[in-house]
Specification:
Length: 462
């Protein structure tokens, strides 16, 4: 295997001739495809790296492929998002790889071969781990690791089957490798923040063991992060729904989650620069929220009747800044919700997935922001859980929200409820984001954030 990973890479633009017709069908169906609802008008190959010696029987290609999509119907094609793909080619697929099928190529260099998503396949997955272990460099792909953490040989890979925005492979219940699907140049917070937290010795986040980057035309792209796999965990979302179904209280867990969030925020504020936000910056923040509201009402017409009411949450924030109020901003998680929190059987909470909101530009995701942004995300999540159950428990979300804020205050010394205008602005912004997210990805869930939207415009309560 090490022979394979040290081979010189080749770039083969002809591959697209084989892939194009198949990707047009397959790519838009993937959960992680970011351009849903807009037709794909073509592809261009950003990079292609052969990871196995091509034989008549099997091929393995690491590809970065740009999908061209017009911004709106009839407009000119825009450069499009770039996706990371690991494409396998075989004469025929064994039944265990049926879920990975992309299609049968009938043109180009791979004509006659069956193409599939090779992350599901054992040998390609092993090869990625081996490359990280040996710090391999294959063409523009740089595999690296923390020299202080050992990566054992012989760990058996399995593809994760949970709903997620990227794709992850678990190795022998010891490591988890997340391969980012939509990739952008620059420092990715999904690697940057866990590395910074590891340096601070923060025990609430798994410390990165390895990482995969691409160096292309002077730009660096983070493609994947390997972390220790926390065994036997349940995520906060599963736990919350389980307790709700039993009509059980979740406030002890919510409080402990508030404490864990504050631990992470405190460590991030120590590890990376903080700034003070004054009138100008808060005005920009509020303007951004207003713009997102405007864009969301275009995308989801059901939001339109609520727009004036939602507007006031953002103007109230700008008004406060105009009166001279300032806020501290720091690096934050950026997309915190119950599904990003894992609880180990020993009762410890771990926070994962520091990518931020994937739809936002990287530079924006890396800006220091008030910690209230993450807190608002979690508060929304308790509300989501309460609205997603068949057996609603009156007051459940409110009690969890209060316990979470109390736990947060116990560790940080700051109770988020003391800043209701900021919290409300962030919660409203998050609920609007969720409306767009659900409309695009899970239309059946749209009523959940819509209920919150309705509530925000009819109540003053946080
Ligand atoms: N270190 C870990 N230990 C155990 N499970 C993990 C770990 N990291 C992620 N997971 C599992 O993988 C899922 C997806 O991870 P996440 O980082 O949220 O990916 P995505 O960005 O694709 O949504 C999580 O919901 C969790 O179930
Ligand atoms: O894929 P990610 O976890 O990075 O985040 C995206 O998907 C989430 C759904 O899987 C979405 O979260 C929303 O639904 C959750 C329940 O499934 C709920 O706990 C969250 O509060 C709610 O925001 C998230 O917004 C989106 O970015």
């Amino acid at each position: 295997m090490s022979e394979a990973v040290t081979r010189t890479a080749t770039t083969n633009p002809g591959l697209l001739a084989s892939l194009d017709p198949l990707l047009r069908e397959w790519l838009p169906r993937q959960r992680w495809f970011a351009g849903k609802g807009r037709p794909v008008t073509g592809f261009s190959l950003v990079a292609a790296t052969e990871l196995l010696p091509p034989t008549a029987k099997q091929g393995l290609y690491h590809l970065l492929v740009r999908a061209h999509q017009p911004l709106t119907l009839g407009s000119s094609p825009h450069p499009g998002d770039c996706y990371q793909l690991l494409i396998g080619a075989r004469e025929a697929l064994p039944p265990r790889l049926a879920p990975a099928l992309i299609g049968h190529a009938d043109q180009g260099p791979l004509a006659g071969q069956t193409l599939y998503d090779a992350l599901y396949d054992t040998r390609p997955a092993e090869l990625l781990l081996e490359a990280l272990r040996t710090r391999a460099r294959i063409g523009g792909l740089h595999f690296d690791r923390d020299p202080h953490q050992e990566i054992r040989d012989g760990l058996v890979p399995r593809m994760m089957t949970v709903e997620q925005s990227n794709s992850s492979i678990v190795y022998g219940d010891t490591f988890i490798l997340k391969l980012l699907r939509r990739i952008v140049p620059g420092i990715n917070p999904d690697l940057e923040l866990p590395l910074a937290l590891a340096r601070e010795g923060c025990p609430r986040v798994p410390a990165p063991t390895g990482w995969l980057r691409a160096e292309l035309a002077g730009d660096s792209y983070v493609l994947g992060v390997l972390q220790p796999f926390v065994q036997g965990v349940s995520d906060g979302w599963e736990l919350a729904l389980r307790e709700l179904a039993k009509g059980e209280d979740f406030t002890a867990e919510a409080r402990s989650l508030g404490r864990a969030t504050a631990e992470v925020h405190t460590a991030l504020a120590r590890a990376l620069p903080t700034v003070t936000l004054g009138h100008t910056q808060i005005r920009l923040l509020a303007d951004g929220m207003l713009e997102r509201l405007e864009a969301a009402t275009q995308a989801v017409p059901a939001l339109r009747p609520y727009a004036p009411g939602l507007h006031s949450a953002f103007t109230a924030l700008a008004d406060l800044a105009a009166e001279g109020r300032t806020w501290t901003a720091q690096r934050v998680h950026g997309d915190l919700h119950l599904g990003q929190c894992l609880r180990s059987p020993a009762g410890q909470w771990w926070l994962i997935d520091f990518e931020g909101e994937p739809s936002k530009p990287l530079a924006e995701r890396r800006l220091p922001q008030p910690a209230a942004r993450d807190i608002a995300g979690m508060l929304r999540s308790f509300d989501y859980a309460a609205h997603s159950t068949d057996a609603p428990v009156p007051g459940w979300a409110e009690a969890c929200r209060a316990a979470y804020c109390s736990g947060y205050a116990e560790v940080s010394g700051v109770d988020p409820r003391m800043d209701p205008v900021l919290l409300r602005a962030y919660e409203t912004d998050k609920a609007i984001y969720e409306v767009v997210y659900e409309a695009r990805h899970r239309p059946d869930w749209l009523p959940v954030p819509m209920a919150a939207i309705e509530n925000y415009v009819t109540s003053d309560l946080i």
